[in-house]
Amino acid sequence: MNWLGSFFIYMVVWWVVLFAVLPWGVRRNENPEVGHDTGAPAVTHLKQKLIATTLITFVLWGIGVFLFWHYGLSLTMLEHAK
């Protein structure tokens, strides 16, 4: 795995983790103003969610890189395991 492939894997995992983290702690606004969506969150906490996403992704990506370098595991090995 070269650095460019590793970067793209990191980015894909980051987006997947982001969509998993976004619903955490969402509280809807009980009295929305006229024209506002009733399901919109009162406070998004987006900065904390982006930091959490980055940290979680870094851990998952680090585990994947460790398995790749230390044990020589790769996705092509799954194809041969069938």
Helix tally equals: 3
Mean pLDDT: 87
Please tell me what the overall shape is.
elongated
Low-confidence stretches: none
Main beta sheet: strand number and arrangement?
Answer: none
Oligomer: single chain
Instruction: Bin the helical content.
Output: 55-70%
Please compute the radius of gyration using only Cα atoms. Answer: 18 Å
Task: Give the N-to-C terminal Cα separation.
Answer: 23 Å
Question: Care to describe what's here?
Answer:
The chain has 82 residues and is mostly helical. α1 packs across α2. It is elongated, with a radius of gyration of 18 Å. 61% of the residues lie in helices and 0% in strands. The model has no long low-confidence stretch (mean pLDDT 87). It has one domain. The longest helix is centred in the C-terminal third of the chain and has 26 residues.
Quick overview:
The protein has one domain (3-21, 42-80). The chain is 61% helix and 0% strand. It has helices at 3-21, 46-71, 76-80.
Question: What secondary-structure arrangement, pairings included, does this model have?
Answer:
Blueprint: H1 3-21, H2 46-71, H3 76-80
Provide keyphrases for this structure.
3 helices, 82 residues
